[in-house]
Amino acid sequence: MKRQMNILLVEDDNLDAMMIERALNRVAPDATVKRAVDGLEGLELIEADVMPKPYFVLLDINMPRMNGHEFLRALRASQTASDSIVFMFTTSDSAQDIAEAYRERVSGYIVKPQGTAGMNTILHTLQGFWTACEPPFTPA
User: Fold this and answer.
1) How many Å apart are CA 71 and CA 137, to the nearest integer?
2) Does residue 139 lie in a domain region?
3) What is the C-alpha to C-alpha distance for residues 110 and 119, in angstroms, rounded to an integer?
4) How many domains, in total, are found in the chain?
5) What CATH number corresponds to the domain at position 109?
6) What separation, in Å, do the N-terminal and C-terminal C-alpha atoms of the chain show?
7) Is 138 a member of any domain?
8) Whose CA is closest to 110, among 125, 35, 71, 130?
9) Per residue in 125-139, pLDDT tens?
10) CA atoms 104, 108, 111, 114: torsion sign
11) For a FRET experiment, which of 22, 79, 82, 130 has its CA 20 to 30 Å from that of 136?
12) Are 20 and 90 in contact (CB under 8 A)?
């Protein structure tokens, strides 16, 4: 059975968010996508149980109010959402950012591609990953 793809996009840049959302609409038209403009809003959406489970997060690093690393630390400390699946999705290719993200237990670190074809390829790969993998078990 094909599982619904539910995505929380945490991205402050409107142009990047629009490009990601358009690419998702092409490769996964049935996906549910909710957007937060920074880490604080992303946490609020998760804590308010707005995201249908199971879901995964596409997370930028450089954002106002709460950046991606701060978001990850708060998420991993959460009693209810610490097992959330998170992919860092950022323009930063800094070795320090990559190492810190993996210490914070991201499922993957993806440097945003330039152009539509690269974006489609990456999001299509994520869709395949989502379909193939079992999500964390959540007791009823």
Assistant:
1) 22
2) no
3) 11
4) 1
5) 3.40.50.2300
6) 20
7) no
8) 125
9) 999 998 888 877 665
10) negative
11) 22
12) no
Please indicate whether residue 139 or residue 118 has the higher confidence score (pLDDT): 118
Tokens encoding 38: 């920074």
Contacts of 105 (CB under 8 A, 6+ apart): 72, 76, 86
Q: Which pLDDT score is estimated for 137?
A: 64
DSSP 8-state secondary structure symbol assigned to residue 53: S
Token code pair at residue 136 = 């964390």
Question: What average pLDDT is seen over the chain?
Answer: 92
Residue carrying structure tokens 């604080």:
40
Indicate the angle between helix axes 116-132 and 14-27, nearest 10 degrees: 60
- The pLDDT of residue 9 is 98
Mean pLDDT of 41-68: 93
31 lies in some domain = yes
Alpha helices in the chain (DSSP H): 14-27, 39-47, 68-77, 95-103, 116-132
pLDDT for residue 110 is more than 60: yes
Q: Which domain holds residue 54?
A: 6-132
pLDDT class for 4, splitting at 50, 70, 90?
confident
* Residue-level pLDDT at 2: 67
